[in-house]
Design brief:
heterodimer, A: about 300 residues, mainly alpha, two-stranded antiparallel sheet, two-stranded antiparallel ribbon, 14 helices, globular, B: about 290 residues, ABC transporter involved in vitamin B12 uptake, BtuC, 2 strands
Chain lengths: ~300, ~290
């Protein structure tokens, strides 16, 4: 926590920006993990949810500049959750690979929708996002944006960690252990699966809003299927169904992408090799590997 | 649109669809045997086609031998991948293996880019591209050739699964792995044979489609169409994969004629979602019974 608080004062400017990106990705990973970790279903469409949150925040800030950034972020999260539910509820009947395919399709449809709604989104030209405002405060520096992201992340992480202590959280845990046993014990499986979808979309939508402010420029091709795949990589490499795992995975994958940028054409080669190696030597993700190490 | 024009569009849709169907079949063959979704299937197709093309350029091979080289390269690559990487991921879950195949696909695409650059190259075809006229209908021989060759390969696959010992073993493993092992089937052998078979089907698809779409490192993205096709048909069902592929190809070719260009790329995915809402396990798939 302390490191997070003083980071902007000790790190160079670029690394402040990078830390913001890491935290945004961590929120998405936690959100995706709520869905995948608890209901055992992968989504390859979370870049789509991120896009909805990002464009909502950007358009709101453009049209209503006086809105405090917190309200903007909550609205971005809620709208994304609404879309998530509208898409997720009809998909409740789908299992395993079918849901995965449907989410993949969702991602493609969202990118194309952004291109077509060009009166709002400016389509392929891209959309410049104005600075976020908090009352009279204009968050126009990397450091200010970093603190916004860090504060929101802290709230989202705390909520996710405490979720397991609520009735909903216990229902999610029951679902994760065995859907059939949960159903037999009176847990309304469909309701909670829908809830997991909505909650996951909410997290990703809020992260999308932050993403818009941190990056400052949105274009549909930033939200392609490869980004969705990256999110899946984060939670599997980090550890499914674990909040620390989501954060570790998001950090490792984001920093790797950034660190390997210098290798240009060799980057995917190295990244791919690392993915294979990590799964061969750390099956079940890094949190489980760390747990094994601690027990030794 | 005239009927003749419509037939032309549908036939070229069926040709594209045959390729998707072959891709879907490769995915289903591996999935049925090993319960793994092989993300790298498209990249394996791309690399084996490139190997065939490189051999043809160096040795001036006739096209039939080029196909043979591509098929051999695919088989060897799949065999290596299976026994060097996949088999070692013993403690891994299916999702871990998914990430492994994803890593593999990144490596293959980047590797192909380093060896052969990311440019597009023309690829020789077995079939002429100049359209032939049958009464009022104009058809491209290349479309008919792709459809014919794909159907022949599908028939061969059907024969393999229906009548050979390996095919029976693969079907047994798909149904119940433990029972298959108890009946004396070497499940490990079935795993590696499934990888090789899938890669070979992919290589044939690659050589068939490369003349139409040009040979490039981007070709591997066809795995997404293959996956879509397999899901439309019902994942795990081989007739479903063929049906799904053909349907997807025809829809993709027909959609631009009737719909505004803004949504043409979304159409296959919207159709997919619509189909899944009505038939949650695809057209020919069966809803898996849950056992306690």
């Amino acid at each position: 926590m302390a490191t997070l608080a003083v980071w902007p004062w000790v790190a160079p400017r670029y690394f402040v920006f990078l830390a913001s990106v890491v935290l945004v990705n961590a929120i998405v990973a936690i959100g995706l993990n709520l869905l995948s970790g608890y209901t055992n279903q992968l989504s390859f469409g979370h870049a789509g949810f991120l896009a909805i949150g990002a464009y909502t925040a950007a358009v709101l800030t453009l049209r209503a500049p006086a809105l405090p950034v917190i309200v903007t972020l909550v609205l971005a999260g809620l709208l994304t959750a609404a879309v998530g539910l509208a898409f997720g509820v009809p998909c409740l009947r789908l299992g395993g690979l079918y849901l995965t395919m449907a989410t993949l399709a969702f991602g493609f449809v969202i990118t194309e929708a952004i291109l077509n709604l060009d009166t709002l989104t400016r389509g392929a030209d891209g959309l410049r996002v104005p600075s976020a405002r908090l009352g009279a405060l204009v968050l126009s520096t990397d450091i200010a944006r970093y603190y916004l992201v860090a504060a929101v992340t802290a709230v989202m992480v705390a909520a996710a960690v405490n979720l397991v202590r609520t009735r909903t959280g216990r229902a999610f845990l029951a679902l994760r252990e065995s859907e059939i046993a949960a159903e037999a014990s009176g847990v309304p499986v469909a309701t909670y699966r829908a809830l997991a979808f909505g909650l996951s979309a909410f997290y990703t939508g809020v992260a999308g809003g932050l993403f818009a402010f941190v990056v400052g420029f949105l274009s549909p091709d930033a939200f392609d299927v490869f980004l969705s795949v990256d999110f899946v990589v984060m939670i599997i490499v980090g550890g499914l169904g674990s909040v620390p795992g989501s954060i570790i995975g998001a950090t490792v994958v984001t920093l790797l992408h950034d660190g390997l940028a210098a290798f240009q054409n060799y980057r995917p080669l190295i990244f791919g090799a690392l993915l294979i190696a990590s799964m061969l030597f750390m099956p079940g993700g890094m949190t489980r590997a760390l747990g094994r190490l601690a027990r030794r | 649109m005239t009927t003749a024009g419509l037939i032309h569009v549908v036939v070229s849709g069926l040709a594209t669809g045959s390729i998707y169907a072959l891709m879907a079949l490769s995915l289903v063959i591996i999935y049925n045997a090993t319960r793994t979704l092989n993300f790298a299937q498209g990249e394996m197709l791309m690399v084996s086609t490139f190997v065939g093309w490189a051999a043809q350029r160096v040795f001036g091979l006739p096209l039939a031998l080029t196909l043979l080289v591509a098929v051999l390269a695919a088989g060897i690559m799949a065999w290596l991948v299976e026994c060097l990487i996949i088999r070692r991921s013993i403690g891994a879950t299916h999702w871990d293996v998914l990430i492994i195949t994803l890593g593999l696909s990144l490596m293959l695409r980047a590797g192909a880019g380093l060896v052969w650059t990311h440019d597009e190259f023309p690829f020789p075809s077995f079939f002429a591209t100049r359209p032939v006229t049958l009464g009022p209908v104009r058809l491209a021989p290349v479309s008919l050739g792709i459809i014919g060759a794909s159907l022949a390969l599908m028939a061969a696959l059907y024969a393999l699964f229906a009548w050979t010992k390996l095919g029976r073993a693969m079907r047994a493993v798909a149904q119940n792995q433990r029972a298959a092992r108890l009946m004396g089937i070497s499940v490990e052998r079935v795993y590696s044979r499934a990888w090789i078979l899938a890669a070979v089907v992919g290589a044939v698809a690659g050589v068939l489609v490369a003349p139409v779409v040009f040979l490039s490192s981007k070709m591997g993205l066809i795995v997404i169409n293959g996956f879509t096709a397999a899901v439309i048909g019902g994942f795990g069902s081989m007739p479903g994969a063929v049906l799904g592929g053909m349907l997807l190809g025809v829809i993709e070719n027909l959609a631009p004629l009737y719909l505004p260009s803004g949504i043409r790329y979304s159409v296959p995915f919207l159709v997919l979602i619509a189909i899944l809402l009505v038939r949650p396990a695809g057209l020919l798939g069966r809803v898996e019974q849950r056992k306690v």
